[in-house]
Amino acid sequence: MTTPSEDPRKPDAPLTGYLDAYFEKPARLKTWSGLEVKPVYRPEDAAGDYEERLGDPGQFPYARGIHADMYRGKFWTRREVCGYGSPEDTNQRMKFLLTQGASGLNVIFDIPTMTGMDADHPMVEEEVGVQGTSLSTVEDMEALMAGLPLDGISMSIVVTSHAAPVVLAMYLAVARKRGLAPDRLRGTIQNDPLHHRFCGYPPAYSPLNLGLKTAVDCLEFCARQMPHWYPINVNAYDLREEGLGAAEEIGFSFAMARTYIDRALERGLWQFKFGVHTAGVSLVPQQPLNNIVRVAYEALAAVLGGAQSLHCCSYDEPIALPTEQAHRIAIRTQQILAYETGAGNAADPLGGSYFIEALTDRLETEARAILSRIAEQGGMYRAIETGWVDRELENAAYRYQQEVERRERIIVGSNAFIVPPERDHEVPAHPRPTVEAVHARLDRLKRFRDRRDAASVTAALLRLRDEASRGERHNLIPCLIDVVQAGVTLGEAVGVMREAYGHAWDPAGQLPSVL
């Protein structure tokens, strides 16, 4: 591949590389995950009995979609991840997305919330409201959901760690205050603590035993009382960002799902729902408008694959949180897919493609091999505990980076077809919360603490400590709903659960236990 070394707009710049471009052909004959691609695929590449291998849409083995009519019956849920600043800030952005045509909401939280730390923790002030919205109290959840019909929307709550049951309890407490039973709510909570530590959080901030216990608490409660709610979203996206290929992504995520399922079966659940979240990982900060094209192709692939819920990355995500403009473009991308391309007119339009089916078979074979390797380590829990997963991710990340640096992988605008920085497109970046906004947030939390009834808070914390000590199979969600309604904060509830499972109240070692 040849890329011009001179700016052709300069009068004296020679034109170079155009003949090479005219005769150019693919240099990498592999999928993005490294699977070799043949020049032609024939019937024998996807041989087998139709009913056994594919079946019609809506029929086992559901290879052609989970519904007989797929999008002819209902379009996929169109969401955008959003969350920044205060709960009030994010509430306004969610309402904006609904006015722009979003059919579901997807809220993400900041690093303190994700790790179960309150906004006034001495180490987190610079992170409050930066990566997502800040949530410390049930009043924060009320502000986040103000004016939104909880029984009329599909709400996706992106929190992965052992803080997930507390956040879910706050959502349920707000619903209870509005007179809504849990079975009237529709949505998803990510609730995937096994993957949480691979998002950059040290092990002390994501204890495996507590994470797995609270994840299954959410599974059990939702399976029994929230039939329209997805109680887990096994996240392989963050692992894929480490450099894994498609087969490894499938293998690792299914191994995590198997761990949750095994624990759920021990509690007598034989059936529950979970969703697998996927999204593009190819966005780059250079020439950011190119990301709009990348996202559109990734969204088309998701729709052709039968996705039931889709979030399009915003083109500015490698630079900052999405602006309103970027969110609008992401929603418009989904709307163009739904209303202009015709991709939803037929169920599984690519079903039977020799190429697609052959690659699918190969991915399945390789993913099963990876599952076997994980089983040899003693299962996913043990593989994480021993560091085996960390080593696999480090090796994958190294291989990927080497391929990029050697230009075996071409990333347009990043390692090829580069423009000088001064000619790159400037993106209006979403601002960080101001110091004044963060201090206002902390003042609000202080007023909440001063206003609550101290005796009720202490009694609630003691009750939570007692219930958290009653064993692995005792579900804490009902207790947590009462506890947060009594005024217990996120950090206090998480601290009690951490101590009950043999961990320090504060993973940062800055705060003493309040009990």
Please tell me the overall pLDDT: 90
Query: How much strand content do the residues show?
Result: 5-15%
The topology string of helices and strands comes to: HHEEHEHHEHEHHEEHHEHEHHHHHHHH
What order do the strands of the largest sheet run in, or round the barrel if closed? 2-3-4-5-6
- Number of structurally distinct domains: 2
Straight-line N-to-C gap:
65 Å
Write structural notes for this entry:
Helices cover 43% and strands 6% of the residues. With 515 residues, it is mainly alpha-helical. The chain has two domains: 365 residues, TIM Barrel, CATH 3.20.20; 65 residues. The strands form three sheets. It has a five-stranded parallel sheet with strand order 2-3-4-5-6, with helices on one face. A two-stranded parallel ribbon has the order 1-9. It has a two-stranded parallel sheet with strand order 7-8. Helix 6 links the parallel strand 4 and strand 5. Helix 3 packs parallel to helix 5. It is globular, with a radius of gyration of 24 Å.
List the helices and strands and how they pair.
Layout: H1 18-22, H2 50-53, E1 77-79, E2 81-82, H3 87-99, E3 105-108, H4 111-114, H5 138-144, E4 154-158, H6 164-177, E5 186-189, H7 193-196, H8 208-225, E6 229-230, E7 233-235, H9 237-240, H10 246-266, E8 275-277, H11 290-304, E9 309-311, H12 324-339, H13 354-376, H14 380-385, H15 388-405, H16 435-451, H17 454-468, H18 477-485, H19 490-500
Parallel strand pairs: 1-9, 2-3, 3-4, 4-5, 5-6, 7-8
Helix pairs in contact: 3-5, 6-18, 10-13, 11-12, 17-18, 17-19
List keywords for this structure.
single chain; 515 residues; TIM Barrel; two-stranded parallel sheet; 19 helices; globular
